[in-house]
Amino acid sequence: MTGEFEHRHGFPPGTNQVRPADHDDQVAARTLAHVTPAPADLVTFYESIGDVTWADVGNGCFLDPAGDVLLRLQEYGVVRVGTDQEAHGLVIGSNGGGLSYVAGSDGAVHRARTASLDEAEFDKVADDLRQFLELLERSLTRFNADGDPGHL
User: Fold this and answer.
1) Nearest CA to 1 among 21, 18, 24?
2) Cα 58 vs. chain centroid, distance in angstroms?
3) CA-to-CA separations, 81 to 16, 29, 53, 89, 100, in angstroms, rounded
4) Span 127-152, average pLDDT
5) pTM of this prediction?
6) Does position 127 have pLDDT exceeding 80, yes or no?
7) What residues are paired with 34 via a beta bridge?
8) Cα-flanking dihedrals φ and ψ of residue 94, to 5°?
9) What is the spatial distance between Cα 137 and Cα 119, in angstroms, rounded to a whole number?
10) 73-123 pLDDT, tens per residue?
11) What DSSP string describes the chain?
């Protein structure tokens, strides 16, 4: 993606990487599994992947490190993603345009409709983390082909 970026856009690319998990990330992933009903696939993801930073794909796409997810959980708690009292999740990243991604306790991934999480409304974007990552992969492929990632 970054090879032709400057030629296409007229400025050098920012950080665009999938960073492997280090020891601290893996410890944070295990802690996340113990302190909240985090979906198993999210914990597995964080045991291998530290974070995803695609600063130049659309407005950007960011999947935060497990340590940041834990800090946000400690500071703000879980996020309600529906009208059901049981429908809650963890903020795991954002689209770079201010909209957060939330992994629900059922494994589904939701995107906030507004930048504020206070009484936010969400749209389900994927049934599980795998499907969400596949959507991100298609966005990256589309961005590489024509410069438009679609709606992340």
Assistant:
1) 18
2) 14
3) 29, 22, 24, 7, 11
4) 89
5) 0.90
6) yes
7) none
8) -155, 170
9) 30
10) 999 888 988 766 567 899 999 998 889 999 998 999 999 999 988 888 899
11) --TTHHHHHSS----EEEEEP-HHHHHHHHHHHHHS---HHHHHHHHHEEEEEETTSTT-EEE--HHHHHHHHHHH--EE-SSSTT-EEEEEEE-SSSPEEEEETTS-EEEESSS--TT--EEEEESSHHHHHHHHHHHHHHHHHHS-----
Residue 53 confidence (pLDDT) = 94
- Other beta carbons within 10 Å of 66: 30
Q: Are strands 100-104 and 88-94 parallel, antiparallel or unpaired?
A: antiparallel
Place of tokens 């879980």: 78
Q: How many CB atoms lie within 10 A of CB 96?
A: 17
Q: Please determine, for residue 24, whether its predicted confidence score (pLDDT) is greater than 70.
A: yes
Tokens describing residue 11: 């400025």
Q: Which residues pair with 52 in a beta bridge?
A: 18, 63
Most confident by average pLDDT, 62-66, 78-82, 137-141 = 62-66
129-146 vs 40-48: helix axis angle to the nearest 10? 50
